[in-house]
Amino acid sequence: MSFFKDIPSVAYEGPETSNDFAYRHYDPDAQVAGRRMEDHLRFAVAYWHSFAWEGGDPFGGRTFDRPWFGSTMDHARTKADVAFEMFRILGQPFFCFHDADARPEVESYAENTKNLEAITDYIGGKMEETGTRLLWGTANLFSHRRFMSGASTNPDPDVFAYAAATIKANMDATRKLNGENYVLWGGREGYETLLNTDLGREADQMARMLSMVVDYKHKTGFKGTILVEPKPQEPTKHQYDYDVAACYAFLKRYGLEDEVKLNIEQGHAILAGHTFEHEVALAMSLGVFGSIDMNRNDYQSGWDTDQFPNNVPEVAMVYYEILKAGGFQTGGTNFDSKLRRQSLDPEDLILAHVGAMDVCAQGLKAAAAMLEDGSLEAARRERYAGWDSDRGKKLMSSSLEEITEMVLSEDLQPEPRSGRQERLENLVNRFVQKA
Predict the structure, then answer these.
(1) pLDDT digits (tens, 9 = 90+) for 302-326
(2) CATH number of 11-373, picked from 3.30.460.80, 1.10.10.10, 3.20.20.150, 3.40.190.10
(3) Which keywords does the record carry (predicted)?
C-alpha cells in the first residue's frame, strides 16, 4: 500500500520557492560551521506520535483513521511500511520508537517480546533498504494499567521485575538495530500523594533500575549512550525526574553522572517553568547533555501539547548552546511532535515535518553565524572580565575576613552595571533575520 500516494520526495529548493513540498532552509549537504547540515541536526521522526497516536484528547476519542491501526503483527508490519515510506519522502536520517509503538500490546511478557523480536527483524530489513538509522529506542512503561503507580518506583516488586525485563528486551532490540542511544522515559516515576508514598525507598528503586541498565549496557557491549528524559508534572503530580537540575542531583547522589546523559524536550522544559535553552545550557555546564526532543507547547494550555516547532529565535538559541559545546555526539533532533487532531490528511504529516525541519535549519544557520561573528560571546566575556583579573582570582581563594579587610581599606562602593539584555536580544534577531 502507499499511504502517501502521489506525494513527491521533498528536496531543498531555497527560500524563494512556493512549493509546499520543498525545503526552504534545510539543505542536507550544505556546509555549516564545518559540517554538513544533516550531520549537525541529525533529524529523527518519532514513531509514536507520527504513527501510533490516534488523535484523541481528554474529551474525545480517536479522530485519525489509519489503515495500520489494529492489534496484529500484520498491522505492525503495515505501520513499518508506511513509516519507512515517510522517511524516504522526507530524507531524514533517523527515527525513534517505543516497543509498544512498533508491536501489538498483549498481556504476556513472552508474547510481547516475541512480537518485538519479529518486528525488530522486519524494521532491520527496512533500515538496510533505506539507510535510515535508529537514534534511540525506549520502552513504554506508562500506558498499561500495571504501571499506574510507576515502573521502577512501583510499590509492587512484581511490577518492578516486569519493567526490568521489558527494558532488557528493548535494549536488546535497540542494540540489534545499532541504535545510537537508549532512553529511559519515566512517564509515571513520581507520586500523587505522600499519604501512601515512601520517597527514600522509591528513589533507591529507581537508582537500582538505572544501575542495572548501565551494567547491562557494559555486559552486552552496547556502544550507545544511556539517556534519561527530564519530565515534570504529567501525568504524575510530583515527578522525580522534574528537570535537568533534579535529574543531575539524582545521578550525582547515586554515582551515575558519568554513565548517563539527558534527553531534553522543549515541551517538558516549558512545563518545568524553564526555557529550552536554559535546560540545554545547564545540561552542557554539568556535563550531562545528550540529545533533544524538538516540540513546543501551547503556552496558554498548561499542558504538554507536543506541537511542531515554529519559533526560529527560540530554536536558534538552543542550537547556539549545542554548537558552542561542540555539537551532538550520539544525540540528535527528534520530533516528539504530533499533528493537531483535526489534521487528518497524509499530506499534513509530511508538511508538519517539512516545516519543522526548515525552522530548525534556519535556527542552526543563525546560531552558526552568531558563533562565527563572536559578538555575543565577547559581550559575555566583557561582563565577567573582572573575574579574570588578578583581583578577581584572588577573591576566589580569599577568606571572609580577608575580603572584609579589603572592602574596609578601600572603602569599596561598587556601582551596578547594565546587563544590556535588550541590546543582545536585538543582536540575536539580526542573525535570525539573515538566516
Answers:
(1) 778 999 999 999 999 999 999 999 9
(2) 3.20.20.150
(3) Carbohydrate metabolism, Cytoplasm, Isomerase, Magnesium, Metal-binding, Xylose metabolism
